[in-house]
Design a protein that fits this description.
With 365 residues, this protein is mainly β. The protein contains three helices and 24 strands. A hairpin with a 6-residue loop joins strand 20 and strand 21.
Length: 365
């Protein structure tokens, strides 16, 4: 019996001996290989893209493409790929045979991705016989947000009177979460609860547990308001609650104020410095004498003194604010050295004041 005879007599039994033919129907699943003349465009990545940052809690992520176009009659399906590298050598996720959506097609990842990493994804369309090109890759980042909460002011608080005009400030460190960097505190001091007039701004590096610092000496007999907030190189936390405190009155040392021989301005500031210098011994007997002298000159010319808390500072008469013993400040913030070696009058510009909170107006002698 030969194969030809079987085909003629029993064609169903001998069908295995006859060469199979491809279907001419473009929707037939038996089509093998691409169909000539059919083109499938690349889909466009929609989201996420452009290195967008996605919080770790906003997962799983959904990948969205603008649908591809085809001149064929077969329906399109989509393949999505997500990788840890731009070359797609380390593919983390593949989803094939995704049915198209209306205008756009999307896939939701099954699991959350690891944070603090960048991911790359792409997609292509295919119709079972023809395959389009992959879209250009898109990439995004998954990150853990940094959250810094408000610190708690511990001292001075509740409008207490401090023991001196050089109080220690104590801040309970701010709670935080996420990959926080080195933390510091911005501290503001004002004479109003609304902080309309900021007298000083300090930046203090965080210390373990609680953060302490002693600022420049403050004016005596004054109510102050202060607040603080924590920050790292990337973000800032909210301000703490505002706390108030009061400083004690500090009297200027007695027996150090000489008679006034030059009562008013004597021409230029330098001339007044020379004129009033003769009222004081050479050398000065104390820093308090120097400050009394500078305050007189400043009052005569509508100048100010420079707030200071160093070892050579002394309290301004009447206010008790501790100031420099050799600097005067113009109302525009220009600072001048006015005593050579804290003894001989001079008038030498040294630069702008670092903050107008350090400008201390002269008082009537």
């Amino acid at each position: 019996m030969n194969c030809l005879r079987l085909v003629l007599v029993v064609p169903l039994v001998a069908a295995g001996c006859v060469e199979a033919k491809k279907s001419e129907n473009p929707l037939s699943p038996t089509i093998a290989g691409p169909i000539a003349g059919v083109n499938i465009s690349r889909p466009d990545t929609v989201e996420p893209k452009d290195n967008v940052a996605i919080p770790v809690a906003s997962q799983p992520i959904t990948l969205v493409v603008q649908n591809a176009q085809t001149n064929g009659v077969r329906p399109l399906r989509y393949r999505f790929e997500l990788a840890a590298d731009v070359s797609f050598t380390n593919v983390l996720f593949i989803r094939d045979d995704v049915p198209p959506g209306e205008g756009r097609t999307q896939v939701r990842l099954p699991d959350a991705l690891q944070p603090e990493r960048t991911y790359y994804w792409r997609a292509r369309a295919e119709d079972g016989a023809n395959t389009g090109e992959f879209s250009g890759y898109a990439f995004f980042r998954v990150y853990t947000p940094i959250v810094i909460q408000r610190p708690v002011l511990q001292n001075p608080v509740n409008n207490v009177e401090t023991g001196s005009t050089l109080p220690e400030f104590v801040i309970g460190n701010a709670p935080r979460s996420g990959p926080v960097g080195a933390v510091a505190y911005e501290v503001e001091l004002s004479d109003t609860a609304a902080f309309a007039n900021k007298l000083a701004i300090w930046v203090i590096n965080e210390q373990p547990g609680i953060t302490r610092f002693a600022p420049s000496r403050l004016a005596g007999g004054t109510q102050y308001f202060w607040r603080a907030r924590a920050f790292d190189p990337s973000t800032s936390g909210p301000w703490s609650e505002v706390q108030a405190f009061r400083t004690p009155v500090e009297a200027a040392p007695s027996g150090t104020l000489p008679p006034s021989g030059c009562s008013g301005p004597a021409g230029s500031v330098l001339q007044t410095l020379h004129c009033m210098r003769s009222d004081y011994p050479t050398p000065f007997q104390s820093n308090a004498q120097r400050v009394h002298y500078l305050n007189r000159v400043a009052y005569a010319h509508n100048l100010g003194l420079h707030r200071d808390s160093g070892s050579t500072a002394a309290p301004q008469p009447r206010t008790g604010i501790w100031v420099s013993t050799d600097l005067l400040v113009e109302p525009n913030g220009a600072v001048y050295d006015v005593l050579v070696n804290e003894e001989e009058p001079t008038w030498r510009y040294i630069g702008p004041i670092n903050t107008m909170g350090n400008f201390v107006p002269a008082v009537q002698p």
